[in-house]
Amino acid sequence: MKISTKGRYALRMLLDLAQNQGEGYVTLKDIAARQEISKKYLEQIVPLMNGHDLLITNRGHQGGYRLARRPEETTVGEILRAVEGSLKPVACMENAPNRCARCSFCLTLPVWTELDRVMERYLDSITLQNVLDGDVRARGEQA
After folding, report:
1. Separation between Cα atoms, residue 52 and residue 47, nearest integer Å
2. How far is CA 123 from CA 4, 12, 36, 88, in A?
3. How far is the C-alpha of 70 from the C-alpha of 60, rounded, in Å?
4. Distance CA 8, CA 12 (A)
5. Helix (H) or strand (E) holding 66
6. Which of 8, 18, 32, 58 could join 71 via S-S bond, C-beta 3.0 to 4.6 A?
7. Per-residue pLDDT tens over the stretch 38-92
8. Sign of the alpha-carbon dihedral angle for 88, 139, 8, 38
9. Strand 55-58 to strand 64-67: parallel, antiparallel, or no bridges (unpaired)?
10. pTM value?
11. How far apart are CA 9 and CA 4, in angstroms?
12. Does residue 31 contact residue 16 with C-beta atoms inside 8 Å?
């Protein structure tokens, strides 16, 4: 699995909002300048996050974006899933139940299943606040 540019930029955008949440609504222009990301690229990312309870949008003169929740309540996993869709390591795991004709006897499926479990657990254990604090170790049981 490879995180796309959209996934990486979405995380940077939300981290920027978390860092600047005291300023009220933040414009994409300001985020783009600070993060050195094209404003047009950020405009493509916003709709992907709007439907996932990640952003609050305010239109108009004082418009911009804010986090929908506090940084300690928003995980890296949910941000990446909002933008990337699935984070499954192999295509056959995209659907539940697995529809692959080989899944009942596939020797490699347990490898991909465990990799998926570890990645999901890790990404869902890291919040925006953890990233801001520089503390991105896995939470809970060993990853």
Report:
1. 9
2. 15, 15, 25, 12
3. 24
4. 6
5. strand 64-67
6. 18
7. 999 999 999 999 889 999 999 888 889 999 999 999 999 999 999 998 898 888 8
8. positive
9. antiparallel
10. 0.88
11. 9
12. yes
